[in-house]
Specification:
alpha+beta, Spore Coat Polysaccharide Biosynthesis Protein SpsA, Chain A, Trefoil (Acidic Fibroblast Growth Factor, subunit A), 3 domains, five-stranded mixed beta sheet, 24 strands, globular, binds 2-acetamido-2-deoxy-beta-D-glucopyranose, binds manganese (II) ion, transmembrane helix, membrane, metal-binding, golgi apparatus, transmembrane
C-alpha cells in the first residue's frame, strides 16, 4: 500500500499543537472545575492522544477508505420533524434525528454519564458484525496451530454494561476457543449498579457453557490504572496476557498474529492497531498502523514507523515501536520477570512510558502488529476526570527519576517545573531502582541512540520558563496570536504560550519547546528595521540567515548579536506596554528557571 508509506512521512509532521486551542475550549466546557493552567494543559494532552489518531486518519483523507457499517436501519417513511432538545450536544451532531423527545433525554443523560452513545449501544446486537479493516495480506496469512494460550484482561471504571458485554462477546467469538484461557474483568471500583448483578448474570450464562471462562476482580476502592492492570495480571493463568480497555471490540483473527509473534520471541511486548469507534454513531473507522512514542512530558504521541519498515513494502508486517500506549500483549511470565508495571504510579498517565523504557532497556522490545486490530471507542469526554494533571506530572517525574539518568531534567523543562525543590512527592523509588540494578538494564542513553533517536536533546537549554522584564513583572513574553509571527507582552498566566527557552547558541524559543528532531521551535528574531520583533520557525530562520541570536544573561539585557538592538518594553500611545526592539536603554530580563549559570 503506497499510501501507507506516504502517510508515514506525513505523520511525522502531524505531532499536534494546532488542536490545542480547540480542545482547550472544549475541555473547559466539559469540566468547569478545572481552572488551573496545568489542568488544562493536561486535559489538552489527554485529548491529544485521541485527536492524533483521528488526525492521522484525516490527514490522508481516509474518507474514501472509511469502512462504514449501517448501524441503524433508517425508516424511509416521512416523519413530522421532532424538536431537537440538545442542539449543542456532540451526541446529536450527526445522530439521533429520528428520536422522540423522551428518547433524546434518555440518550443525552447516558451520554453525559459515559462519554459515548449508550442508548444506541443498548439497541445494537451484542454480537454485531464489524467490517474487516485489515490489510488484504492479513487475511491470507497462515498461523501455526499450536500457539500459546491467552488471558484477556479488561480494565474498566464505570463502563456501560452493553459495551462490556459486546467486548466479551467479540473476544469469545473471535479468539480460537482452544487458545482462550480466560477473560478477566477488572472493575476499578465502578459505582453503576448494572455492573454488579446484571453483569454477574451475563457472566453466569457464559460460564454455564464454558466453566471458569470469565473471572471478575473487583476493587473496593479506585486503585488507578497501573495497579488495576497488575491485579489483572496476577489473576491470569494463560501463557500470554492481553491487557485491554473494556470499550473495545476485537476484530477477526486479532489474537493469532500476536501469539505467533510471542511464540517466536517471548521478549517482544506487542500492541495491536486500533480502529476508531465513533462515540456517537458507534461506526468503525479504519486507522492505518502507526508506532507509539512520547514527548519529554512523557506524554504519548503517534509516529510513523522506522524507515526499515517502509522498505519492507508490506504494511501487514509487525514493526518496532519506541513505546506502547495502554493496550498491551505480552508473555505473562516475561512481563512478570521485568516487573509488570510500576505500582507506584497513581491514577493515570506515564505508566505505559515506564513500561516501554523498561522493556527496551532490560532485554525486550516493542512492536506494533498491523494484522491484529481492535476497534476502540474514542469517548467524547471521560466520565472520571478529577485532577489528572497532578498524577501526570508526578508520574512523569517518577519515571524520570528511575530511568532517565542524566536526561531526567528534560521532564522538568518540558513541564516548566523547577529542577530542584519542585515540592512534588514522587513516592518511594528504591524498589524500582533496585529492579533496574537486578535486571542489569542498559542506560537511557542507549535507548536514545538505538531505539528512539527522533527524541531531541535539550542539552543546550540554559534557562526556561516565563520571561519577564524587571520593570513590569506582571507581564510575560507571549507567543502572541496563532497563526501569527509577532510575540507580545501579556499578563503572566504561565501557559505554554509563555514558556520561553534560552539556549547555548543564543536562540530564544517562545511558546513551548518541541521534543522531536522532526519538529522545529519558534525563534525570536530581529527583522532589522521597525520596532516589532518576529517569531519564526528556527530551522527556516537559520537557513534564511535571520537575526535569531541574542546575548542574554540572567537579570540583564537581551541584545541581538547581529543588529545590536535590544528586546525591551515601551509604553505605546495607547498607554499599554508593548514588546519592542530598540537601541538598548539598559532594561533587564529575568527567566524563571536557570539550568546553568549564564
Ligand atoms: C448473533 O447471535 C444471534 C443469537 O445467538 C445469532 O442468531 C446470530 O446469528 C448472531 N449473529 C452473528 C453475526 O454472529
Ligand atoms: C540592569 O542591570 C544592570 C546590571 O546588573 C544594572 O546596572 C542596571 O541598573 C539595570 N537596569 C535597570 C533598568 O534596572
Ligand atoms: Mn480507551
Amino acid at each position: 500500500m503506497r499510501i501507507a508509506t506516504r502517510v508515514g512521512v506525513l505523520v511525522i509532521g502531524v505531532i499536534v499543537y494546532s488542536l490545542v486551542y480547540m480542545s482547550l475550549r472544549q475541555e473547559k466546557v466539559n469540566d468547569k472545575r478545572l481552572q488551573k493552567p496545568e489542568d488544562l494543559e493536561v486535559l489538552r494532552r489527554l485529548k491529544r492522544i485521541e485527536d492524533q489518531v483521528y488526525k492521522i486518519a484525516k490527514f490522508i483523507d481516509v474518507k474514501n477508505q472509511q469502512v462504514k457499517e449501517p448501524v441503524v436501519e433508517q425508516k424511509m417513511t416521512k416523519k413530522i420533524e421532532v424538536k431537537k432538545l440538545y442542539p449543542k450536544s456532540p451526541l446529536f451532531r450527526s445522530w439521533g434525528a429520528e428520536l422522540t423527545e423522551e428518547e433524546q433525554m434518555e440518550a443525552e443523560r447516558q451520554f453525559q454519564d459515559y462519554g459515548y452513545n449508550v442508548f444506541l449501544s443498548n439497541k445494537l446486537p451484542v454480537n454485531r458484525t464489524i467490517p474487516d479493516t485489515r490489510d488484504h495480506r492479513c487475511a491470507v496469512k497462515i498461523y501455526p496451530k499450536d500457539l500459546p494460550s491467552i488471558s484477556v484482561i479488561l480494565i474498566y471504571l464505570n463502563e456501560a454494561l452493553s459495551i462490556i458485554k459486546r467486548a466479551i462477546r467479540s473476544i469469545i467469538d473471535k479468539t480460537p476457543a482452544h487458545l482462550l484461557t480466560e477473560i478477566i474483568l477488572v472493575d476499578d471500583y465502578s459505582l453503576n449498579e448494572d455492573l454488579q448483578l446484571p453483569l454477574d448474570e451475563f457472566i453466569g450464562l457464559i460460564n454455564k457453557d464454558k466453566p471458569g471462562l470469565i473471572k471478575k476482580v473487583r476493587h473496593k476502592r479506585q486503585m488507578g490504572l497501573a495497579k488495576a492492570r497488575i491485579s489483572g495480571w496476577e489473576a491470569a493463568t494463560g501463557q500470554v496476557v492481553a491487557i485491554l480497555d473494556a470499550h473495545i471490540e476485537v476484530h477477526k483473527e486479532w489474537a493469532e498474529p500476536l501469539l505467533a509473534r510471542i511464540k517466536t520471541d517471548r521478549t517482544i511486548v506487542l500492541s495491536p492497531v486500533f480502529d476508531k469507534v465513533c462515540f456517537d454513531t458507534l461506526e468503525v473507522v479504519k486507522y492505518i498502523p502507526a508506532v507509539h512514542a512520547f514527548d519529554w512530558n512523557l506524554w504519548c504521541v503517534y509516529e510513523s514507523f522506522r524507515p526499515e519498515w517502509y522498505k519492507l513494502n508490506d504494511p501487514s508486517e509487525p514493526g518496532k515501536s519506541p513505546s506502547i500506549m495502554g493496550i498491551l500483549v505480552a508473555d505473562r511470565q516475561f512481563l512478570g520477570e521485568i516487573g509488570i508495571l510500576d505500582e507506584g504510579m497513581t491514577i493515570y498517565g506515564g505508566e505505559n512510558v515506564e513500561l516501554a523504557i523498561r522493556v527496551w532497556l532490560c532485554g525486550g522490545s516493542i512492536e506494533v502488529v498491523p494484522c491484529s486490530k481492535i476497534a476502540h471507542i474514542e469517548r467524547a469526554h471521560k466520565p472520571y476526570s478529577p485532577d489528572l494533571s497532578k498524577a501526570m506530572i508526578r508520574n512523569a517525574l517518577r519515571v524520570a527519576e528511575i530511568w532517565l539518568d542524566e536526561y531526567k531534567s528534560y521532564v522538568n523543562i518540558a513541564w516548566n517545573l523547577p529542577l530542584k525543590d519542585h515540592g512534588i512527592d514522587i513516592g518511594d523509588v528504591t524498589e524500582r531502582k533496585q529492579l533496574r540494578e537486578k535486571l542489569k538494564c542498559k542506560p537511557f542513553k542507549w535507548y536514545l541512540e538505538n531505539v528512539y533517536p527522533r527524541l531531541d536533546s535539550l542539552e543546550d537549554i540554559m534557562g526556561y520558563g516565563a520571561l519577564k522584564n524587571d520593570l513590569q513583572e506582571r507581564y510575560c513574553i507571549d507567543q502572541g496570536p496563532v497563526p501569527g509571527s509577532v510575540p507580545i507582552l501579556y499578563g503572566c498566566h504561565y501557559y505554554k504560550s509563555q514558556h520561553c527557552y534560552y539556549n547555548h547558541n543564543g536562540e530564544i524559543y517562545i511558546g513551548g519547546i518541541k521534543s522531536h528532531t522532526y519538529n522545529s521551535n519558534r525563534c525570536l528574531t530581529d527583522p532589522g528595521s521597525g520596532s516589532t520583533p518576529g517569531l519564526h520557525d528556527c530551522k527556516k530562520a537559520k537557513e534564511k540567515g535571520l537575526s535569531i541570536y541574542w546575548d542574554f544573561t540572567q537579570a540583564n539585557a537581551i541584545r541581538n548579536r547581529n543588529t545590536n538592538r535590544c528586546l525591551e518594553i515601551g509604553q505605546g500611545q495607547d498607554s499599554y506596554y508593548h514588546l519592542i526592539l530598540q537601541t538598548c536603554t539598559g532594561q533587564n530580563w529575568t527567566i524563571q528557571h536557570v539550568i546553568k549559570d549564564f
